[in-house]
Amino acid sequence: MAFEKVLTKDKNLPESRKLSYYEKVGGYRAWQKVLKTMDPEGVIDLVKDAKLRGRGGAGFSTGMKWGFVPKDTEKPHYMLVNADESEPGTFKDRLLMDAMPHSTIEGAMIGSFAIRANTCYIYIRGEFVHEAKVLEVAIAECYDKGYLGKNIFGSGFDLDMYVHRGAGAYICGEETGLIESLEGKRGWPRIKPPFPAIEGVFRCPTIVNNVETLACVPYIVENGADWFKSIGPESGPGPKLYCISGHVKRPGVYEAAMGLPLKELIYDYAGGILDDKKVKAVIPGGSSVPVLTADELDVNMDFDALAAVGSMLGSAGCIVMDEDTCMVDTILNITHFYRHESCGQCTPCREGTTWAEKVLKKIKSGNGTMRDIDLLYEMSGNIGTRTICPLGDAAAMPIESFVRKFRHEFEAYVKKEVA
Amino acid sequence: MKLSFSKDAQKEFEEILTRYPNKRASLLMVLHLAQREFEWLSKDAMEYVGSLLDLPFSEVLDTASFYTMFKLKPSGKYHLQVCHTLSCALRGASGLCKHVHKKYGIESGEVSDDGKFSLIKVECLGSCGTAPVVQINDDYHEGLSIEAFDKILNDLK
Fold first, then answer.
1. CA distance A202 to chain B (A)
2. A119-124 vs A160-165, strand pairing mode
3. Does CATH place domain A327-414 in 3.40.50.1220?
4. Sign of CA dihedral A348, B109, A332, A87
5. ipTM of the shown complex
6. What is the pLDDT of residues B96-124, one digit of tens each?
C-alpha cells in the first residue's frame, strides 16, 4: 500500500500555522469527538490499541503510559509536552511546531483529557524563540474558539495550556529533568521510582509526551486504531518523521511509514551522499545511539529492526558521514557534547564524560597509546547504566560503538599514521 | 543601582505568575524576561528577580547558572551563537567561527572591543537539516556559507 503523508500532509507555510486552515483540513474534529462521545478510558484504550509508541527516543507505549496515572487521587494531574528537542541530529518537532502547531496542541488536549489533566504545559527549548511564539499564537486562537478554557463545549471539562520556555540544557529533554526545570530549578533528573505518572511536577501525577507522539493522536481518533496499525510494522506502527543530516545532498525532515529502509532514506529521499562519495558511517537515531558502518545499512528504520542490529531508532535523527570523515574527530565531537550537557549529579557520567574527552583529545593529538583505546572501551562500560538518567548511556553507547567498529582509525593516530 | 521592571514587563510578569501553582515555577520565564529587560543577569538583576519571587539570590543563581542561555556576564549587542555539534561540524561550522575570529578578533566567550559582537560556540541548536546554523540573538540563520554569513554580519548595524 502506498504511503500517504499524515503529519506533514497539510504543511503549507505560513497558512498552515493558522487555526482556520487547520480546521479546514479537518482539525479539532477529533477533539470534539473525544469531548462529546468518549470517556478517558476509551481514549487510553484506543491509543493502546493503535500501538502508538513514543517518538522522543524511548519508544514506550503511549497508551500504557497514560494508563499509569492513578484514578483515585485527589491531586491535580498535569500533561507536559516535551518540546525540548535537543538530541543532535534531530529537528522534526521544530518543523511540526512551526508548520503545524495545531496538530500537537490538539493531541495534547486529547492526552490531557485521557489522563484527566486540567493543565498542560508545552516545555519548549529556549532557543526556539520563533516556535514558542507560533505556539502561543495558536493557543490564543484555541481559547478564542472555545477549544481551551472552562467547560469546553459544555462537556464539563476544563483545560488550560501554557508555553514554558527552557533556557539551554539538553538534559531537560529527560522527563524528570524537564519536570525539575518546569518547577523553576536546575534540570537535575530525579531518581525513579516514583515515576512521573504517580509523582511528577508539583508532586502530582504527570505525563510527559513528545511533540510528534502527540501529533499522531488526533489522526488516530479520527481514523481509528486499525488504520494506524496498517501503516508500517505491527510492533510499532504509524507515520514517522525522519530527520537526515550530515553528508547528504538533500538533508531535511521526511515523512514516511515507520520502518522505512535506511538506504531508501539516504539515497532516495536525501538524494545520496554529497559529491557522490561513498558512505563511511551512519548514526541512525540521534547522536546517542550506536553507529552503523557502511556494511550495516540494510536495515529498516523502526524500533525492533534497529535494535536487532545493535542500534536504536531513538529520535530518528539520522546523521550520515562520508568516506573522508575522521571517526576520531566525530566521536570527540559527540563526547564533547555529552560532557558539556552532563548535569553533574552522577559521578560516572560527570567524571566519565570528562575523562573520555581528555583521552580522545590525547589520541587525536598523537600522544595516545594502545592502552588508551582499550581504556575508552572500558570507560564506556563504567558510565552506561550506572546513572540516575539515560544521559550516561547516551554518552557511553557511541564511544563503545565507535571504538569497536572503527578501532583501526584510533590505532592510526597512536601509530602516528595520521598527521 | 536599584533595578525594576518597566510597566510592560511588570504586566507580563504578573501574567506569567498566573500560569503556575507557585512562584518558584515561574523562575525560568521571569529570568528570560529579566534578561530581556536588563540585557544580562547581573547580581542586581538576580536579586531583583529573587525579591519578586521570594527567593534568596543564591537560589536564583543556582538555577540561572545551570542554563547556557542565561547570560551571567554582558554579551555583545549581537550575540553570535555558532552551533558546533556534529551535523554542523560536518557541514563547516568551524569555518564560521574562524571567520568571526578573523573579522572581529574574538574567540568563543569573548566580546569585541566596541561591544557590538560576542561569539559563543553552542551545542546542537536542533536545526541539523540546514547546517551549519548560527543563532544571532533570537534569530536562526541556516544553511550558511562563509559568504552568506559575512553578508549577514555586515548588515548588522
1. 8
2. parallel
3. no
4. positive
5. 0.97
6. 999 999 999 999 999 999 999 999 999 99
